[in-house]
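The following block was generated as part of the benchmark described in Methods. Ligand: adenosine monophosphate.
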Amino acid sequence: MSDTIFGKIIRGEIPSDFLYEDEHCIAINDINPQAPVHVLVIPKRGIPRLVDSQADDQALLGHLMLVAAKVAEQLGVGEAFRLVVNNGANAGQTVFHLHLHIIGGRPFAEGHLAG
Ligand code: AMP
């Protein structure tokens, strides 16, 4: 498992409230939310970036998407949310342990990817 803040959270070395947990991943609230709902879905396997994932991560990557959809619905934003993966520092990735951002609960500009 990679040694990032998320690795420490997953290992319980840093306390955090898990909104969801199963054997493959956790979901936690983002500490610096960009919207009323801003949740991170984090695999327990510490893949640094999406481009570092391998063919045998296929099931895990699909699982993360399904969990994101389930968590979004549970948080009441199932009808409108964005799922974001920042890959690489120049794309804004700051924690090099793959994670999905679920962002919802506010309007998004039509046709914009980053609004
Ligand atoms: P990224 O920029 O895609 O790597 O996203 C990393 C995210 O992790 C940012 O949105 C941070 O606000 C968030 N973050 C950093 N540390 C913590 C933490 N201890 N608990 C929850 N979220 C965190």
